[in-house]
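Reviewer comment 2.1 asked that we show a complete input and output for one of the modelled complexes. We chose the flavin-adenine dinucleotide case, as it is the one discussed in the main text.
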Amino acid sequence: MDFQLSDDQRALRSGMRDLLGAVFDRDRLRAAVERGGGVDRGLWRELGAAGFFALRLPEEAGGVGLGLPEAVLLFEEAGRALLPGPLVATHLAAGLVKGAAEGEAVVTAAEGGGLPVADLGGADAVLVAGGVLTGEELAAFVAGARPVRSMDPLTSLHRVEGRSAGAGASEAYPGALRGEGALLTAAEQLGSAARTTEMAVQHAGAREQFGSLIGSFQAVKHLCADMLARTEPARSAVYAAAVTGDPVEIAAAKLLADDAAVRNARDCLQIHGGMGFTWEADVHLHLKRAWLRAARWLTAAEAEEILAGGLGPVRPLYGGSAALG
Amino acid sequence: MDLTYTEAEEEFRRRLGEWLAAVLPGLPPKPSPDDWPARRAYDTTWQRMLYDAGYAGLHWPEDAGGQGATPTQHLIFLEETEKAGAPYVGANFVGLLHAGPTVAAEGTAEQRARWLPPVLRGDEVWCQGFSEPDAGSDLAALRTRAVRDGDDYVVSGSKIWTSHAEVADWCELLVRTDPDAPKHRGISWLAMPMDAPGITVRPLRTLAGSTEFAEVFLDEVRVPVRNRVGAENDGWRVTMVTLSFERGTAFVGEVVACRRTLDALAAEARRNGKWDDAVLRRRLGRLNAEFRALWRLTQWNVAESERTGGVPGIGGSVFKLRYSRTRQELYEAAAEVLGADAFDLDREWALDRLSSLSYTIAAGTSQIQRNIVAERILGLPKGR
Ligand SMILES: Cc1cc2nc3c(=O)[nH]c(=O)nc-3n(C[C@H](O)[C@H](O)[C@H](O)COP(=O)(O)OP(=O)(O)OC[C@H]3O[C@@H](n4cnc5c(N)ncnc54)[C@H](O)[C@@H]3O)c2cc1C
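Response of the prediction step:
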């Protein structure tokens, strides 16, 4: 057992961080906010060229040939950087939809359950319960969709009626796809949770009140400590689920990562004081995105039911086993 | 990121499993919580069985009498023994999990030879004399005085909350050897024989009803200078080594035990109909996520210490912070599963619910762990 990042995995992660630093810095982030989200096709192609979407396709199929453990590292970085666009759906569509792997196509997903569809405007395809919508089917789908004034300025939303609007995500998607969607979303949440922890610590170490850095006040310090104590167990859960692919473990990862992202963003906001309540600070972007992701692919209620179903009967007293699933 | 165990690790697990299956049915029944001599005998007999089978001090270095096993093998050992329902370390907790490792890391060859083998064989039991009435979270404020007199220290003062004091042979004792130095620089770490004249042990009853710890009064107790581990007045550094073992590895096996308990709770809830309550069911589901994550975090920390070697890192504080609270939530959920039976101390889990209350206090309170995480991991400024 060696449950640590390998050298290659470390390199992959820092490569992704460097790439995002170059192509999606804070100015580009704020520009995307003012634009109201949506996909920057140029950026999409750059991600495609870097192998973000084709990461898990076999090399014979023109992919990178890596697995979920590597994918979660990339999505963690995307979550950190608040990278907009239907990243998860397009990644899942690689190999299913022409051009998705290369970042030529933008693919979103209609998860059902009454959830609005993200980034529908300009999408080349939509993943739905029974398959993929393109061409005329897509046009009809879009025509029936109504734009929502999205709470998250980085994600445009459309409400859809009829087909795939009614069913819950659980019935809508084949298990594997849904599980992967949930896990990659959890990885984004993890990146966001780690980032808001950093932002909070940074601010607490710079802002003075009462003649002291606010980070020297215990009430602030303990909020920060709790943020880390949410992030690290979530990290272990996400990475482990990526290694085992076990549905119960994926549910644990999604549940804990959603919690970490949402609650860390709130604590980060609190630590920023009045500044935290402004449009100008990035904190609200993390919180809004975290709320939205928490509702996607696997909700807390669904995850908890899966996890409850995974309990008991008490394991036999003797008898070895492999890694405790 | 590799979660599979090697061939050799699996072989180790299999052999251990076979051995446990062979010996556990022959163990005597667990003694009553109030019968300390019997508890000691039970715990040390088990330790002796481990010793004879080659499983004692697995993770200790070989030159300290250990097996030099990898942290992963140690993890497998903790996992399998818990899964099999083998006895807990009990009275051997301090000797095996922190005093012993501290002596192994900081002691002289002579000290290691004197103290370590009897711990491994289950011949000698240790207790921890750190806390004092006026020095709890602020441990470095301790006042128990040690004055040099020839080849001895003469020690006077008092300790409190000393677990297993009634049955211990040795006490890892923190004393003040330089009252004029700044508080962290005048402390020394001594091994005190518990049968020395001048020691009075007064048991304290916990809220769970049994006497798990004691006050220890020291009245001019003579402790040989050669029993000091580390340099004089360098005891604080040695203490940090001890605490890193205590917080870093001491709770690992318990996570496995908690997962068993959670499974048993689910089984009981399905039996008694409480499972139909979606709120309770989801609460148990959430606990499943928590304990799975804690187990994975443990594996992560173990793999990390395997790479860096030696003393566990302060990541143990993050673990302890989260684990202690989750353990309490587990037994709150248990009370809900039990319903009215939660008030019957003879029902399984009722007592555990009470003892879980100590987890956010013992081995450094949660507030202190948060200070450590914030200051030493996140780098926030120290408070005044
Ligand atoms: C079951 C059990 C077994 C134990 N076994 C042993 C043993 O074998 N040997 C041994 O030496 N000790 C032992 N202890 C003692 C334990 O380590 C102390 O109880 C603990 O460190 C807290 O110290 P205290 O009890 O003096 O509480 P205090 O330090 O008085 O704390 C009281 C409250 O104040 C808070 N507080 C204190 N300082 C701060 C601060 N700086 N910032 C924020 N909050 C603060 C604490 O978090 C706590 O909530 C045991 C305790 C228990 C419960």
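The two ends of chain A are 14 Å apart (CA to CA). We note this here for comparison with the apo prediction described in Section 3.2.
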